[in-house]
Model the fold of this input.
Amino acid sequence: MINNPKKHLIASIVLKIHEWINRLLRHSLDHYFCFLPSPTGTISAFFLNRLFSGVFMGGEQADIINNIPDGAIVVYTTKYKSRFEFLFAHTRYRQLRLPVPQLAFDFDIYFWQPLSRVFRICLAYLDELVQRHRIQDPYRSGYYKRALLESGCGLLSLVEKKGYYRRFVKEKTDPLSYLIQMQKEIDRPIYLVPQLMFFGKKPLPAVPGLVDSFFGTSQRPGVVRKIVTLIRYPGKIFVELSQPLNLQQWLSQSAQPDKTIDYQALQLRRKLLLKNNRHRQSITGPILKSNEELKESILTGDRMGNFIKKHAASRQEPIYKIRKKADGYLDEIAARYSPTVIRIMSSVVGWIINSMFDGAVIDRAGLARVKAISRKGPLILMPCHKSHIDYLILSYVLYQNNMPCPHIAAGKNLSFWPLGPIFRGGGAFFLRRTFRGAVLYARVFSAYIHKLLEEGFHIELFIEGGRSRTGKLLIPKLGMISILLGAYRNGACEDMIFVPVYIGYDRIVEEHAYVHEVEGGKKEDENLGQVIRARRFLKKRYGKIYINFHDPISTRDLLADSPVPIDRMAQKDVNALCRNLGWRIINAIDKQTVVTPHGLVAAAALNISKPRFTQEELMEAVNAYLTFATAQNAKLADTIILNPDGAMEYAIDRYLSRKLLEKAPGDKDLPEDQADYTVNVAKRSLLEFYKNNCISYFVPAAFTALAILKKDAFQFNAAELHNEYHFLQDFFKYEFAFDLDRPPVHYVRKTIKSFIDDAMLMPHQTIPDSYQITSSGYRKLKLFAAFLKPYFQSYKVALHFLRTNRKEKMETKDKLKKIQSMGLQMIKNKEIELIESVSKVNYANGLSYFSTNGIRNHENEAAISHYETLILNYLNLLGP
Done:
């Protein structure tokens, strides 16, 4: 064969060119625009850092990623295809030291690539086209797998404009199918992390406006809207991450192994989209429909329509009149939820908090748990109620932490002009104090609650019914819980999550009004004059606000072990569930109560039996309470944790400056460490309010201490205290909430252990379960038992009324007014000594207890005498 020199030369040249190209390509064809190296070039990095500098991403988001095991592959998922979101993740995650997505499935990143990479990519595409007559495909070449294994991080979108057409018509590779196949071939787990970018917290309207039609919505903005928001309102943009999905675990547990990869990818996409949508709704809230649309949906529903027909027939009234009444009731009740009003109120409330308070201490971990579980169903936020500030501060905290403001159940007394319309715009809906006799009103109200849950709105209500005038939690009011359970029973939502919330204050704004009401004064109705006079509060400082969140209670989980589904439960069982839930929530709030220095100092000052005491004696009592609270794992104010002595001294100084505590007569000119102090008698009830703020932690100690004192011996057996503890628990069942799952023996043993640790008791050397009171212990036992003294004195007055009253029929308010007058007279006659025991709330609770034990009037002489003797014996033990 004769060699052709020309062909040989050409082949030699082609070979040289190939070698040259291979060297330029670094002997690899793995060059694609879907990969953006990190870090990028200096100029690109500068512009990208500046571009995304205003986008907010909270530190708790980093914790989500940091909990992923080392060595795992992280793939961020976005709902829609967005180079903007990819570039954000590529830029900011590197700054936060999180896994940085360099690989983007089905993305082409051109502009930010280094020029050398652009050249190699183009050369690789050209080489593939010349050599194999086809365009490079990162799926076919296995590039995505190699790049993920090497970089350990990527990003993909779940929905794109032509995604369905590509997968199901052109049969292009689905990135989720690719990941599933890849996961089956490797041992390293792949974690899918939904990433959500928000351009505002405003909920989507039911009908898009003109701006939304042209420039996209706040949830899916167009390019122009993104740029304008980024430049003019960068603070509106924030990013959150959902909980990761472990693909390896999902394939082994959730996916059906006999199904095809395409089917598994379809199920996976649905799961991720559902997670994304629920997360987004947990921040923006449900779609915001017009009031007319909601009203029509409520009043024309089958259930409401049938009731209106029956109601009209039973009343023999035309149906249009009943419909007109129902329409009027709905106008009276319904909120006018307005994102604009909420945004304005957020600024106003923030200013008020900064003007009046020294900041808010928020349970961030608890809030994060609440935020996460809100994706499973509407929240029923149930805070304690001490101030009108409560509903403002809770909505403000949720809004500032990217959660929708709840619809708030408010008393009709707050619907006055001009605050009524403002409150409605902020989500308040109004209800009457009683539904008695208003059958149609009650049904319309229940239908409204059903609709709120059905739409997915969060609801806030106060389980105590109204504000506590005593400082401690009131017994639960179950009406609203019953309505909520009724809506859940009728299928309003898949799950309903109750969130007990504690809101407390160093100092309450309404303190003087509360003392006035507790001591028998008439409550002033809310009106415009109160709003005008409220300006004076802005000039005062009220310390800190404390907000704690208990673990949420899922209704579905609560009923998981029930043998009968709630929709088939007998009404008595539903009522029992309602009572159980009410007390469970009260107990949960108690466990989140914050012990403040103001509460401890107030308790110590009131419980010291001597009329005069030194600062050293006051601090000794405070430290006894603090030691016990610490042993019980009570929630302590941050100021106590950082500097307990300094916190207590500050609280004492505040009480002295406000004349709640005073230097004793004759000691006015002495230094503080040498002077004696007294409690200002006129302000004892105010100190009682602050003492009661943290009393829930000390009730078991008070019961146990009193049971020990009643033994009247310096040695006792623990088992001998159980019956006494049980009696006291029953006696004060309307005053304090108890965890009924815990028997008296649990609290007695736990309290005794704390008393031993504080050297109040000593275990007997030879007799098991027996203890001896130390010399200092006796004095401290009386300090703990003294928490109960005002209540015994209140109940003594209530019994005196029952003995002396001869009127057969009296309204409750008239009874309380009479007992109030009687209590003040007994104070003057020195039959009782504590002015704080003159309390309408205590009297009402005492009457409730005696009534349930068969004492309703003077005819129950034997029972009255029995309880009078009991109370007298207890008061003798608590004497000076």
Observations:
- The two ends are 128 Å apart (CA to CA).
- The longest strand covers residues 190-198.
- The chain has a mean pLDDT of 87.
- Residues 261-284 form the longest helix (24 residues).
